[in-house]
Amino acid sequence: MNKLNILTFPDPRLRKKATPIDVFDIELKKMAEAMLYTMYKSNGIGLAATQVDFHKRLIVIDVSEEQNEPLFLVNPEFTVLDETIEQYKEGCLSIPTFYEEIYRPKKIELRFQTLEGKHESVIAEGILSVCVQHEIDHLEGKLMVDYLSPLKRDRIKNKLVKKKDATN
Ligand code: QAP
Ligand code: CO
Description:
Blueprint: H1 26-41, E1 46-48, E2 58-61, E3 71-90, E4 100-113, E5 119-124, H2 126-139, H3 150-167
Antiparallel strand pairs: 1-2, 2-3, 3-4, 4-5
The chain binds 2-phenylethyl (2E)-3-(3,4-dihydroxyphenyl)prop-2-enoate and cobalt (II) ion (CO).
């Protein structure tokens, strides 16, 4: 399988808003499998289609130890069930090597469609809740650095731009 190219902050394509999926065909399944492969190869636990320059509402997540419990989320949405704010040191495959404490509501109800178009819902807490919220942000063109101060965000941006220049 081919590993997809992951966009890196501050690539402007990470700011595009993804559109809903209405065709549940073999092409969608292929894209989801390619994203899962890319995520596992990159040692990630979540990847949104936006990050691989595909601007549709598709997310893959696997928060299991063994990387054997993939979740494919099409057109995901959530509502907050417990507004208590929890902090988690988050990373992002589009912001490599940076980890920051981010604050989000604790408990959510996630609704999504499967790759076959079936509607499902689950209640999530802990790392799954964090990951779902982080990935749905990507579909809106939002990044975890947007929750940081402009100063911190700019420092991260400058370091990543310098690293990219060094490899180009
Ligand atoms: C989002 O993030 C997330 O910097 C998914 O060098 C993070 O998979 C949700 C990664 C934390 C919940 C909690 C980051 C891999 C992976 C890096 C990721 C890196 C290599 C990030
Ligand atoms: Co991310």
